Amino acid sequence: MKKSWWKVLCVVLLVYTVLAGLLLPVPALRQLQETIRNLYFHVCMWFAMMILFTISVVHSINYLRGLKLQKDLLAKEYASTGVVMGLLGYATGAIWASYTWADPNNPAFASFGSIVREPKLIGAAMALLIYFAYFVLRSSIPDLDKRARVSAVYNIFAYAMLFPSIWIIPRLLPSLHPGQEGNPALNFNDIDARMRMVFYPAVIGWTLLGVWITTLKFRVTLLTEKNWLNAK
Amino acid sequence: MRNRFLALFLLCFTTSLSMAQDNEPVKMADEMRSSGKIYVVIAVILTILAGLILYVVRLDRKITKLEKSEKH
Questions:
Q1: In chain A, which end has fewer C-beta atoms inside a 10 angstrom radius, N or C?
Q2: What is the ipTM of this complex?
């Protein structure tokens, strides 16, 4: 095992997230009640996704500058871990929303209609589908250099599309999502200092876990694809 | 003009209604904390987290071993 300080930091921060996230006091809000603790898990998935996609697009730009295939592989691995984080964020959000947004007078499937109309859900689904298309595009081009070049350019467009689809449009439309008035989880009115003490370490911890898994996947790719990588 | 005053009056009434609603305490899981059952939840989550991290560490070790054997 390649020993690194940040792997230890990742484990420490995640254990701290679980302990402090469940034990420290949180503000009592009418709509969320005790479920506000999901902030340390659900929201962190989206933050980790955004950071991993950012690392991915940086590697894509670096690929286009130097045309080194390793950079393109790194971009692909970071994007795929980012998609996993996004899917986990989506799944956890679905569970959370069905208990806090759903009309208590109706069964969950009856208030499905109002949940499906959420601009945040549609925007996040669009962003993830654009990244799915990135993988479809990659696997549809057999030529290695052409694949790397086309998908690096596409990755930049996919990253640019994140901003309208998950940052801008959901903020322009009415929504049931908590923190609708500004940036969820970053707004000083939404979460108080007690929650910040857990939330920021949690974001770092989950992101480091994503980076750790990505480096493992990248090292496996280097081992399996070393024949054509060395031929370069 | 009278309508406006009536509207203002009604508006005051609605805000006072919503204020009254805010005064009742929000239900939190205090019972779970006082009975100590929250530690059961923490134990379960920490076990899952430990299992996942051990899995990643073992993968990391295996890949490092492969990388070393490939070098020779």
A1: C
A2: 0.78
